[in-house]
Structures are given as C-alpha cells and as structure tokens.
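Listing S7. Sequence submitted for prediction.
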Amino acid sequence: MCKDMTDKEEITPELLVEMKNLIVRKKERIILDLISFNIEKYENIAIIGPNGSGKSSIIKTIIGDYRPLAGTQGMVFKVLGKDKWSLCDLKKLLGIVSGDLQLEYMRNIRVTDVVLSGFFSSIGIYPNLRIKPYMLERTDEIIDFLEIRHIADKNISELSTGEARRVLIGRALVHDPMILVLDEPTNSLDLKSKHKFRETVSKIASAGKSIIMVTHDLEDIVPEIQRVVLLKEGRIFANGKIESTLTAEKLTELFGIPVDISRDKGYYHAWC
C-alpha cells in the first residue's frame, strides 16, 4: 500500500515511455526480446498480439513489476523521463485497469471507497488511512465524470462486470495519472457493456489522458487510438500509424490465420 503523494513532482516529459533494445527474462526464458518503441506525450496507442506474445509483459515492465535485463548493449528504458522510480511513486502517475485487479475487488467494498482507494493503491479503505478533503472532492468529480453516481453506494461485488470495470477506471483516474493503462479491458464483457466501456475510454482520451491499450480484440480500439504496436513471440512485428499497420495482411501473418478487417466510424472489426 502506498502513501498519498500530496505534492507531486512536476513531470512533463515529451516521451512518456522510451524503450530501446529492451530484454526481459523470466525464469531463464526471454519473454521480451530487443523491444524498441516510444510513447509520446498525449499519444494513445494499442498493443496487439496473440496470447503469449508479450503484451502484458510490456505493461508489467512499464509499471515496474518486471525489470529489464541490465547490461544489454544500447539498452534504454525510461518511464516519464526517468530510468529509476520507487514503485509507489510510479504507480501514482499511472492508472492501471486489468482483469486481475477486478478479481481482487470482488468483495463487499462500496463503489465510492473503491474509487477513493486509488489514492493509496490499496484494496478498499482502511481505518488508519488519512483521507483528506481534496480526495473526497476528487472522488466525487470522477464518479460524476464516469456517470456512475447511481451505483456509488452499492458494493462492487453487486455490480455487473461492465459496471465494475468502469468503477476500476475511476479508481485509476482519481489521482490524475499521466497515463491510463488498460490491459485486456473488455474480457468477459457483453456487447452492451463493451459499447459503454468504449464510450468511456473515448471520453477519457478526449479529456487529454494518454492511453495504452493492450488487447487481442480489435473492437476494443477506440477512434482516438493513433498508433498500434503488433507483437509476436516477444518481438515487435510491426509498429506504426493505425491506418497503415492494422491491415488484413499484417494481421493474417501475425495470428497465422486468414483475417479480414473493416472500419466503420473509426471502429475496427475483424473476422476469420
């Protein structure tokens, strides 16, 4: 559990994430092999690939759960302009939403407390936490921004999967992070919940947050995504502007099956 950072260091890097020749090893197996790409300020990107391609490993490296292999020739790895962070300080500058986090929250915790807990990186609110007035004000702002006031007094365990996912977005946003990280965000959501979730992500992107979306489902990609990184077997398969990179030819080679895609009003659809 992390303490509140009342006075955040002023951080305004042009590159939010900088990776060059990044290697990550887990139990003697290389899971990321010579990864090189940057994420610029205000840029929204999607990281796409088959299961086991290394998508979530990139996210775990960015948020500090995995460490790149030291001593790699030409290796550069910086997040928000720095190559060293305390995990607590870094996670106050990143908002993270994942299915794993949602599993941790499947208990009797009030929605308002779930959102508020983002200030402390805790699972719920404990009696010894020092809750300051601005935290309560910010929590109310986020609840209204995400249009979840009608469920604010319910327990998260009572909600649908889609509603709970939106609450966790509120938790991720409450401390005003520089980057919102969405790891397989619509897993287990039905069609209506996916639609509402995409609307929420678009609203956040339009408000000026940089978004990193990890997915294998093209329908997760909102129109505000400008660039995609395609991963295969721990390596970058392609990296570029969405229109030139997210093509049927590249996806067919990436997934190893014939893939057709279409685009309608900025949203992508794929089928085999």
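Caption to Listing S7: primary sequence and predicted structure tokens for the chain studied. The CA atoms of residues 26 and 87 lie 19 Å apart. The longest strand covers residues 15-26.
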